[in-house]
Amino acid sequence: MRYAFVQELTALAKKNKDIILLTGDLGFTVFEDFAKQFPKQFFNVGVAESNMIGIATGLALSGKIVFAYSIASFATFRPFEFIRNDACLHKAPVIIVGSGAGLSYSDSGTTHFAIQDIAIMRCLPNLTIFAPADQIETRWATREAIKLKSPVYLRLGKKGEPDIHRQPPSLKVGKGNFVKKGKDFVVIATGNIVFNALEAVKILEKEGLKGSVISMHTLKPIDKKLIQKLALTTKYLITVEEHSILGGLGGAVAEIVSQMSTIKAKLLILGLPDNFPQKLGSHTYLRDIYGLSPKKISQRIKKFLTK
């Protein structure tokens, strides 16, 4: 996803000299072409994420469109106060790009895991959150982030996530995107785990259970009307995210459903437990042991459907 992001940004920067890219001493093998083509639009601010947000806000309030890039955990947790006070409270067009969503930095330790970032960023005022599922959604989200002219958090994977779309669909900010339709249950997934959710539903389809899959590429504003409709019309509603089960996609859906006077759906929230063990290994390994591989997701959904 990060390569799709910088490719799209490079194409946009050719047409708009107000686009600025800041990095916190990251993006090596990713940003070289951008830096070479636009030396006056690229700045490495060093390992100083809070300062990066301050610089980004100043540039944004001076008429620039600023992308501030770092590892997702460093882009959100370290400079959180600056994001809140500088970018969000001033409605500055600062686009915070967090690469390596969820467990992507699987062998770097829990300091690099971005599994609470959605929760803390959702509560910030004036902020839009994008969590694209593949390269196509990433390119779309990059373009839309510029159009918004307000703070954005763009949450990206970094492990060469497979495309879930064969061709660009019609996407809208704040509207969930159906990538598969079925009658027995509905899965709402977000970001770099959507592919696994889709594969899990395909496994269940072979067992006679047909489900829908929605890519919730916009987490804020989330598609409230769609969630309310699903809560009234489907029997089983499942959320899947590579994030803590507290405060993320599942939490956002639960907030909406819990305020409805009448619902039909039972809700299952799949993600990372609050007190998960601190293990290291490949991304595939960690997803499997925490129940987020296609096979484990399918097993958890089947148990939910049949209990």
Short synopsis of the structure:
With 307 residues, this protein is α/β, with parallel strands linked by helices. The chain contains twelve helices and twelve strands. The mean pLDDT is 96.
Notes on the structure:
The protein is α/β, with parallel strands linked by helices and 307 residues long. It folds into two domains: 2-156, 3-Layer(aba) Sandwich (Rossmann fold); 177-306, Rossmann fold (3-Layer(aba) Sandwich). It is 39% helix and 20% strand. The chain has helices at residues 2-15, 32-37, 49-61, 72-76, 80-88, 117-122, 135-148, 194-205, 224-233, 249-258, 283-289, 294-306; strands spanning 19-23, 42-44, 65-71, 94-99, 128-130, 152-156, 177-180, 185-189, 211-215, 218-220, 236-244, 266-272. The strands form two sheets. It has a seven-stranded mixed β-sheet with strand order 2-1-3-4-6-5-10. Strands 7-9-8-11-12 form a five-stranded mixed β-sheet, sandwiched between helices. Helix 2 links the parallel strand 1 (19-23) and strand 2. Helix 3 packs parallel to helix 5 (80-88). The protein starts with a helix and ends with a helix. The model has no long low-confidence stretch (mean pLDDT 96).
Key words describing this protein structure:
307 residues; alpha/beta; Rossmann fold; 2 domains; seven-stranded mixed sheet; five-stranded mixed sheet; 12 helices; 39% helix
